[in-house]
Amino acid sequence: MNTARLRDRVAASDPGLLRLAAGLRTVGAIALTLAVLGLLGVSVPHLVAGAIAAMVATFAIREKQRGPQAVTLALGLPVALASLSLGALLSSRVVAGDLFFVVLIFCAVYSRRFGDRGTALGLIGFQIYFVSLFVGATVSGLPELYAVLCVAFLCSAAARFLLVRETPAGLLERLREAFRARLAQLVTAQLQLLDAGPEEIDQALKDVREGTARLHETALMIQGRLEEGTSGAATARLVQRRVADAEIAAERLGLLLLTARSSERADTLTLHLPGAPAPRAGRMPGRDEAMARVRRDLEALRLLVLRPVAARSGTALSQVRNRLLGYREEDNLPPVPPAVQDVFRGIGETARAVLGLRIALDGPQDESDDSPATARSREELDAEDAVIDAREEDGGTPQEEPTGLARPTTRAAVQVAVGSSLAIAGGEFLSSQRWYWAVLTCWIVFINTASTGEILVKGYRRLLGTVLGVLAGIVLAGAVGQHTWTAFALVLVLVFAMFYTAPLSYTLMSFFVTAALGLLYTLLHTYSLSVLVLRVEETALGAACGVIAAAFVLPVRTDRRTNDLLVTVLERLDDVTEAAVDQLSGGTPVELLDQARDLDQALADLRAATQPLTHPITPLRARRDTARYVVALLETCAYHARSLAATAELLPTHPSIAADPRLRRAGRRIGDNIGAIAAHVADERSTARVETGPSIASLLETEVPGTPRFGRVTDRVLRHVQRLDETLVGLARPLNVPVAAPRR
Known about the structure:
mainly alpha; 0% strand
């Protein structure tokens, strides 16, 4: 059991083991390269060159399929040889070498427009040229360096394809396990929220909020790997559907628990805005029999998430599953207050989502101990699977791409070329031998950034990590002395830490790489305190040059970028909501979950772009709070849109959900309000206004006597539509969009 728990924790902390695999693969390539070169008896500078080349050849490859990875690695070797040759030939020609370096940098950034392969080849070309400067490559020493590069690339291939193998199907399987583990962690956090007292509620709510975000992150990672990791489009759509069902059910269960804790319905925003007020109406009575039952069933739900019901499990776990699925039927709900009954319904729906996820991922399950409620859930899932299999995949409408200087890769290439030119001039003023550190920093701060604010934050983080890394480098260099292989062993540890922490903290990554460089300086007999101080100075200069270039050369202001991304999010929200409401109103079925994931990706891009505005060091506190509030409101909108999409997908198979044409009236107002907000964000001079008015439920009233008020549209659909409508009105205020007075 302890081993299983440890495995679950590792899977949850590192979904797909992506960070672990990246670190092991890179360290394996470097270690294998050092071992081969050590047996060949090469010099220490060549060992350093081989280690850096192996690292570059490993982390530059980004394709997901093994075949394209091999092609890119094969193409990368001649690119590396050419870059090394030019670096050696131009080392004694200062002006020509600097001009070529700028051209190389421009081409390396511009090549990103050609996808993962272009990005990898550009990165290899730039980094190997940097290696030639770092080890002082000369024309006479090229033959040996050619051999070193060949060994490094071969060892990188061996590490990738033999030592640390990774297949799309295997990676997707690990991501699935991570999703299960994170779902179980979220249920655990919800259980703690159930028991939290007044002093503990804030931390418990924070844990639920973080667990919800981590589960959503894993769902997006699975979405990005479905096409390569599954046997066909139908299987991919099935897994996508089941993951979405589980995610939505778990998030809704958290909201129901919050509602049950308080006297009023919990605001969805509470799960999406850090610092939002927690329900304070009192602690759920732990001694009450119903609350004890809720606690027991949450524990059972967590066990059901982690452990399959198999023949060897006996009947205990199957009985647990049957009991939880029974809560989907009104007759099985305990006689408790309505808010607590909703919690039991939420547990039942989450159990159904877990069952569907288990069937989609692991195939048919043991049905020998099924209760009638479980059998009905299986029938519903089978009917949904049949509908999914029958649908044809829609390729979507291709998006028009910008051209010329408006293209992001072209603009970034021009900016980094100008910034690198400034860095070369300033760097050579500081040091004629190590000016390239400024250029490297300028290059790095432009990678995966798109606005001046993002570059400023990244430059600050790199500088902070470099300063701390210099201090660590001083300690490590003094401890290692001239023990070559001890130093290389420590470098391997630092490289692993660098790749393992890179997705988590750019500052930590910069710290580890700077500490490793201190050891490499020691190996090259160029270590001194003045060299490490110069490293900090060059880093600060490179970051400053990057910010200057971003601010004055084809600048993309943070406000402009966030506004553009905000408009994109609103457009995706409108697409999902309109399609879901149309389908719930009796319209033609479409692939809603794909549209919902497009919305999620657009929101993730916006969240990343607002980091400069929400960073702790920003002096504009009011602006920071507004940005956080707007993103939280959009996350709330996305949750309700995902829920509407998932409900609409159930229409063909679910007996309690049927189309209601009256929903179109509600959808029309929501669509108009989204359009008004988007128009105002795109152009402040827009005169569009957000409309308010009667509740969504009142819009569904009919003038025909005797007609049921809501038809067979479930109360849940109405709540999602109502909350979406209210959240859009709330979103208008921080964005300064005029809100029209209700019509009478």
